[in-house]
């Protein structure tokens, strides 16, 4: 067993103990008696319990934990199977159930089983029913109908609808406020007489919003002076998201990146349109496509992940296209990010994981340090390495007595 660093007043040593403890909290091989002690440590946060696969024993133990923050984490984390998460629907804390309905942070985590939504539709807590009704995209067709039949006036769809107030588009289009003119430029009811005026507006955002309105031909859009870069955040267009048939195809093939970005999120895309957008030269188009569609190729998901700079890039690692994909070919990539994701391939041989655990880049070694395909001997070597010790603390092949030692060292501060 590797020796632990000497204690003392060295802050760095304290940080090592703390990082090992947090790594241990996410160790799927941690016995329940040690997990109970780890959770009680002041340096351990609910997020430290993260793991990609959960045993029923560990999940049920935490689902019964008296601290609602632990159960809220469990409701939102991406690793548990839907059937495991569904065990929280009877949680006494409304906040836990709301977190459960809000779903895991990772975009591609599966939803709850249909039976769970049907049961939640009968939950005596109005707040739960209201939150459920606000997520029609998750619900089986009969569940939303059942909610509306309850006659609760606060539930969406119940009672009469209030007409939207009339908008004075002439006033907005002629306003001195650029914000007003932007609103007019994007409004579907804008009178045609304002198109030419707003196309020459001094505000570039006004021209951009005008260029993305429905009803324009491609030459008309091209004649409006506006520039869209990959760094520009522009709104998704409801009329494109709802488009189908020839209109959707025109948006997919448009020279305007704003239309193509919105088309990438359209759920009606055909395989041919997905292929076309997957080769788009505008990165946000490819990112939005991967975020929405399960049918994109695994190689596109990986390439998009490697290129992405957004904080949500790790959501792509949960993409269904990667679940059964062969990622072993990335082991020889010059990009350490690509080599690291090989560990997500559950069919990658242990010999390859072992090889990556010796990678020259410590970041790759960190990614594989917790993998159960490593031998206990290699896991111990990585635990003894300062750069990988935290990640190796999550390896289930560590001996239990070392797990106990990690906890003991962290407790003496």
Notes on the structure:
With 413 residues, the protein is mainly α. The protein is built from 27 helices and no strands. Helix 17 runs parallel beside helix 19. The protein starts with 10 loop residues before the first helix and ends with a helix. The N terminus is likely disordered.
List keywords for this structure.
413 residues; mainly alpha; 27 helices; 0% strand; globular; disordered N terminus
Summarize the structure.
The chain is mainly α.
Q: Give the fraction of residues assigned to helices.
A: 40-55%
Total count of helical runs of at least 4 residues: 27
Unreliable segments of 5+ consecutive residues: 1-11
Order of helices and strands: HHHHHHHHHHHHHHHHHHHHHHHHHHH
Question: How big is the Rg?
Answer: 26 Å
**Major sheet attributes:** none
β content, as a range? Answer: under 5%
Class computed from helices, strands and strand pairing: mainly alpha
Q: Shape from CA axes? A: globular
- What's the total number of strands? 0
> Overall pLDDT, averaged?
90
Q: Whole-Å distance between the termini?
A: 22 Å
Task: Summarize the topology.
Blueprint lengths: L10 H15 L6 H8 L16 H8 L4 H9 L5 H4 L8 H9 L11 H7 L5 H8 L7 H8 L20 H5 L4 H9 L8 H5 L4 H8 L6 H5 L15 H4 L3 H8 L4 H8 L6 H8 L4 H10 L5 H10 L12 H4 L12 H5 L9 H7 L5 H8 L6 H9 L4 H4 L7 H12 L2
């Amino acid at each position: 067993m590797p020796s632990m660093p000497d204690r003392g007043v060295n802050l760095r040593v304290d940080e090592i103990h703390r990082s090992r403890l947090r790594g241990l909290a996410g160790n799927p091989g941690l016995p329940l008696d040690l997990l109970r002690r780890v959770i009680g440590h002041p340096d351990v946060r609910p997020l430290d319990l993260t793991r990609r696969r959960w045993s029923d024993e560990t999940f049920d133990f935490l689902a019964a934990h008296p601290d609602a923050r632990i159960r809220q984490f469990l409701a939102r984390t991406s690793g548990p199977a839907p059937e495991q998460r569904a065990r929280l629907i009877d949680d006494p804390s409304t906040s836990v159930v709301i977190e459960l309905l809000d779903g895991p942070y990772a975009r591609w985590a599966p939803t709850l089983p249909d039976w769970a939504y049907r049961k939640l539709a009968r939950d005596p807590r109005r707040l739960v029913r209201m939150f459920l009704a606000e997520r029609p995209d998750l619900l089986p067709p009969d569940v939303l109908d059942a909610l509306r039949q309850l006659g609760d006036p606060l539930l969406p769809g119940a009672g009469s609808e209030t007409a939207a107030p009339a908008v004075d588009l002439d006033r907005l289009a002629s306003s001195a406020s650029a914000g007003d003119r932007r609103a007019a430029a994007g409004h579907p009811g804008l009178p045609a007489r304002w198109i030419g005026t707003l196309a020459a507006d001094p505000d570039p955002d006004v021209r951009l919003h005008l260029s993305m309105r429905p009803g324009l031909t491609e030459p008309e859009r091209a004649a409006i002076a506006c520039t869209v870069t990959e760094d520009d955040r522009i709104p998704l267009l409801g009329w494109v998201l709802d488009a189908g048939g020839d209109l959707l195809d025109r948006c997919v093939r448009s020279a305007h990146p704003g239309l193509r970005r919105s088309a990438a999120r359209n759920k009606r895309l055909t395989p041919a349109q997905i292929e076309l957008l997957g080769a788009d030269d505008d990165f946000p188009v490819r990112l939005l496509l991967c975020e929405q569609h399960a049918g994109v190729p695994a190689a596109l998901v990986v390439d998009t992940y490697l290129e992405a700079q957004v904080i949500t890039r790790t959501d792509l690692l949960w993409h269904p296209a990667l679940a059964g994909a062969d990622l072993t070919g990335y082991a020889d990539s010059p990009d350490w990010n690509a080599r690291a994701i090989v560990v997500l391939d559950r069919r990658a041989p242990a010999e390859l994981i072992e090889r990556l655990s010796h990678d020259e880049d410590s970041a790759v070694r960190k990614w594989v340090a917790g993998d159960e395909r490593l031998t206990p001997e290699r896991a111990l070597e990585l635990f003894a390495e300062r750069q990988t010790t935290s990640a190796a603390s999550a390896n289930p092949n560590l001996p239990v007595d070392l797990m106990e030692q990690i906890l003991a060292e962290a407790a003496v501060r």
